[in-house]
Amino acid sequence: MNIVVCIKQVPETTSVKINKDTNTLMREGVKSIINPFDMYAIEEGLRIKEKFGGRVSAVSMGPPQAEEALREAVSYGVDDAFLLSDRAFAGADTLATSRTLSKGIKKIGDFNLIICGKQAIDGDTAQVGPGIAEKLDIPFVAFVRKIREIGNRSIKVERMMDDGYDVMEITLPSLITVVKEINEPRMPSLRGKMKSKSIDIPTWGLADLEIGEDKVGLKGSATQVIKVFTPKRGGRREMLEGSVETQVGLLINRLNDLKVV
Amino acid sequence: MVKVDIELCTGCGVCEEACPFGAIKVQDDVASIDERCNLCGACVDVCSFEAISIQGLRKTGGEGNDHKGVWVFAEQRNGKIASVVLELLGEGRKLADKLGVDLSAVFFGDSVEMQTNELISYGADKVYVADAPILRDFNDEIYSKVLVDLINEYKPEIVLSGATAVGRSFIPEVSARLETGLTADCTALDIDTERRILLQTRPAFGGNIMATIICPDERPQMATVRHKVMKKATYDTNRKGEVIKKDINGYGVNLRTKVLEVVEEIGETVNIAEADVIVSGGRGLQEPKNFKLIEELAKILGGAVGASRGAVDAGWIPYSHQVGQTGKTVCPKLYIACGISGAVQHLVGMQSSDVIVAINIDKDAPIFDVATFGIAGDVFEVVPVLIKRFNEIRG
Ligand SMILES: Cc1cc2nc3c(=O)[nH]c(=O)nc-3n(C[C@H](O)[C@H](O)[C@H](O)COP(=O)(O)OP(=O)(O)OC[C@H]3O[C@@H](n4cnc5c(N)ncnc54)[C@H](O)[C@@H]3O)c2cc1C
Ligand SMILES: Nc1ncnc2c1ncn2[C@@H]1O[C@H](COP(=O)(O)O)[C@@H](O)[C@H]1O
Questions:
Q1: Whether the CB of B310 sits within 6 Å of ligand 1
Q2: Structural domain of residue B28, as residue ranges?
């Protein structure tokens, strides 16, 4: 089994806070992390490899410092890592990102399974995984919470739905996106840590991928952000005082007034 | 790319603060932008000196294409139309009226004739139906194929779907195949009537900022839309509509994707994504058996049970109940947080709820920052009284 995991470096949301006076984002010392869902993708890739052999490769599209995320992936046990980086890739929406990553994955070589996180916590779109599958013309299952069976030609998985789960079977090669429930990610190993320091991570730019400049980055994006603003908050914060009976009485009155109960 | 006009820039630093990506630094009284820039345009909006502009954007304007009409994907599960579809029909009606075009529903399922009439009563001028046993369960591959073909044949200008597990699974494949844009998880939609384009607003960075997104050139313009933010369409059985049947003979051959089993798990607790009321418990509950208290309150209020990751990781309640960054995003009318501290990762999943009640023994807990009403108190004292009082009211 050759597996490719797609990982994205994202700002750790905890550090993105709103400055209450200016209503702007404060990001002093925003730390970058591997997108939390992608940690489960890495872990699942490693577990499959441990059972069935093969390689796990990690790929990321992003600015040069996204290499840190790839090195971290190697420390967990990923075999090799590839960075897709070029000024031309900047400003990509999910369509342009899916195209670029699918070209990168093709260049990595033969794969049986691609694993993505369910969504990236900066954009929360959950669109890149299915987008990559479409661009590579392979079947996919999103929101996988369990891999039940891996056969020679197909895999059986459970996908999480809003009201339960579905059991799906798709032929290989294919793509899955994974949710937190699927596993418990491991800590880096000592060997992995050593390797992560020395491994050579190739960087591929526009010229290295078989893709036109008008298909990537801002130019290749179908969508545009035209406005960014801070949301209005309810702002009716009220602490209810008094004895428990009084507090509860007040609460029920307020909820009745607002007609929510 | 983003250009800073060094003549106009005063180095005031407002853009540096506004940048969500930390890509701007003011040095020597001029803003400079590094490769972390995501071209979101936040800096352009806040600059009072018009010193920042985004260049290289393509020309905008949806004119010159022959796409017409607003479509709503009418998702069903086990033959039942999802509630978000009625909200989409309500919103779709408004958009269609602004554009002066038809509103259509697209419906896939098995033996679904009855529901077709429902969709018309809820405002659809046309219903495109594909009716066959293989469409009963949600199979991404076949759903995508049928929808892509319908869109190519009838050319709508806008396609909306619920941001449900179904919509967020297969709609991205559809938009990628059509090479058009898709905005995920929108909370507001509008039309720029001058340019006839869809303005799609959605939260980003876990709800810390909102972004308005357009798809200026490609058609259709596609969006998935969150539950419970749009008003439900009015129901009127006198409405008339046209039904267009899509023949899907041959679509089922050589499928690479199979649905083997569909398992409903909701049981005694309602699906939190759809619930109007959610009562959530955190580590403050101290023991798994204390979730009974939460369940009881939820039951009286006709609501669902949610949980923090703290409670899920402790094994007190299954992951499907988890609210937050690595769980589900919810926006019920009422969210009651019991013994939850309010870590950012939890807040991002629930802070857009209409009314938030927090009960926490620690009066400085961050959950109170987003609460509409806060009770600084012990859940084991407060919740039983709440249950008692609600029981009295409800008789
Ligand atoms: C990458 C990442 C993703 C994450 N994703 C999520 C997510 O999706 N959802 C999520 O919820 N968290 C998430 N977390 C975890 C989050 O940071 C917090 O650790 C978690 O939300 C804490 O859960 P809690 O509030 O139940 O527990 P605690 O933080 O331990 O809070 C318990 C609270 O209960 C109060 N309390 C104690 N006893 C009582 C009593 N008798 N009566 C009243 N109050 C009492 C305490 O004052 C305290 O405020 C994530 C973290 C990371 C790093
Ligand atoms: N720039 C990127 N580089 C690598 N993988 C990505 C990138 N963007 C998204 N992905 C993958 O796609 C998943 C969904 O991302 P998104 O659609 O942005 O929510 C992530 O969890 C990653 O696995």
A1: yes
A2: 2-54
